Structure formats: C-alpha cells, structure tokens
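Q: Could you fold this chain for me?
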Amino acid sequence: MISDRRTRVLVVDDSAIVRKVLSDILSAQSDMEVVGTAPDPYVARDKILSLKPDVLTLDIEMPRMDGLTFLNRIMQYHPLPVIVISSLAQSSTKAAMEALHQGAVDVLAKPGGPYSVGDLKEDLPRRIRAAARSRLPTARTVRPADVPPTRVVEPQGAPRQMLIALGASTGGTQAIERVLTALPAAMPPIVITQHIPPVFSAAFAERLNKVCALEVREAKGGEMLTPGVAWVAPGDRHLLVDRAGGAWRTRVDDSPKVCYQRPSVDVMFKSVSAAAGPAALGVLMTGMGSDGAEGLLAIRDSGAETVAQDETSCVVFGMPREAIRMGAAHHILALDAIAPLLLKRTRLKA
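A: Sure. Below is the predicted structure, expressed as structure tokens.
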C-alpha cells in the first residue's frame, strides 16, 4: 500500500541555477517535498544522514568528489533510489550510463540545449514517483564493471526465423544489459525500446555493444533487421518495424507520445505484431506505468509468444503488472530466466 506521505527529495548539483530549477519543479508537486539541496557530495552525505530523503537527484560532474564515486559510496553504505541529472556532453553521457550500471534507477538530461525546462517539468516528477516506488538493484542485478559479461555457448544449428522485441522503463537499462549479455551473437534480430532521453540512448547502445556478443546499434531508420544485431530506439523518437519484400526494416518517427512516452514500447510492439505476426517474441520488462501492455497483448493476439518480467526481479513492476492483468503474457519470468527462454526459442525445431 502506498503511503499518503509526500516523497522527500534531496537535490545534489554544483550549479545553484540547476538546484533552483529542480527544486521549483518538485516543490510544485502536491506529493513531493524538497527536503534539502547540496552543492557537492560532502554536503550531500551529511544531509542524507540528517534529512533521510526517499529519492536523491545527483549530478555527475561536481567538485571535490565526482558523482560516480559518490554513487558507489551511497549504494555501499546508505542505498536509496538515485536519479542522475546529467549534461549532454559525451563524457557525461557515458558516465551516466555507468551510473545506471552501478545502481542509479534513472537518468535525465539537464535543462539547456535540446532539452528544455518544459521537458524536465513533465519528466522529472514522473521519474521521481517511479524511483520512490522502486526496488533497489542488488548484487544479482548489477554486475561490477571489472567483471566480464557471461558468455554462453552458441546454439547448435541456425536460429529460427523470428524477431525479438524488448521493452522497458525504470530499471530497464540494467535489466536489458543482463539479458543481452547472456545471449550469443547467433541470435535473430532484436529491437529494443527503453524509455531514455535523447543522446543517452546512443550512449546506452554503445555500452551494450561493448559488453555483449551481439552487435548493438542505435536505430536511425531504414536499417534492415538481420541476425546478430540489436537495434535500440533513439531517445525522443518512436522505433517501429515494417515488413517489405520479405524483409524487416526499422522506421523511426516523431509522432505524438503514447502513455506519456516517446519512444513508446506500445508503438514498437504493435508494429512488431503487424510486421512479424507469429514469428515475433515480445518481452516486457521493469518500468512504471502501462506502456507496452497493450502492445504485448497485440503480439500475443497475433499468435506470437510473450513474456512479462516477474515482480520480484523488477525494479518497478508497473508495466509488467498491467500486461499480466490484461492477460498479455504467456510467461511470467524472473529476469535471469528470460535469456534462457529466448535462446531456447531460437533453435530450429526438430
């Protein structure tokens, strides 16, 4: 049962302007309270202990101690949900992806450039609510950066002709990495929609490409889907799949948000159901809200197999819960059981 108590947020950023922008946005929410701000991790450390926030927003680049080092100490000594608020500089986006790997539950872009204060007003409260309801990643779901990913034996024979579609939101970057690093290169084509801001989606694809046997790329639109390659939806653009001349191709567009999201899992899943029919396999993973539930049902109704991640292994169970409620999932699986099912389904039938 969710308490009526307001969510307590501590804002950590070395910029006084950013601290004020974030504080003003959150203070305008009836269900949130900014209990304090901090210009660096040393001040933040003391305020975490004294103010006991429910959620922390964290800048990556700060004086005296960088955000990644501080995040690592938070997760070790005083774990709580952390949302990274990062600039769009290349070094910062890569650091933000590492922060998600280390246990941060979400990432947002700082206002400025292509990302406006208006966008932040819409996104930040929703992400804070999801973080407040999240189950913190544990050692089972966050692999240390210095430990290589597990590699599995290549399947015997050619993979089945099929299309795999993965959708996720809060906690999804870790979950998707967990699944993909357990898969070999010899897999059918994969399409992925993860709720993530522009620019960060490219860094996300780049990170996956480094740690996975599969090739992982950010979709630009018009790419042919081929075995051994996974395509990630670009931030703030929908990823769809079209079938033409017996082949599957990506398409991206700027049509309106669905379930408050662009990219939307529903948009991708529904296009996959239309393009691939029973040759598809849909997987809906951790995330708040309902995006993907209707799309997963469309995939199931087309005669294809569907999976929803189970509650215990989700950071936030909202999206899979809604899909299960609608009867959209053939299987309800723990995170570590998803890759084995995908691998099993790729093998040719005897």
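A (continued): Confidence is low (pLDDT under 50) at residues 139-156.
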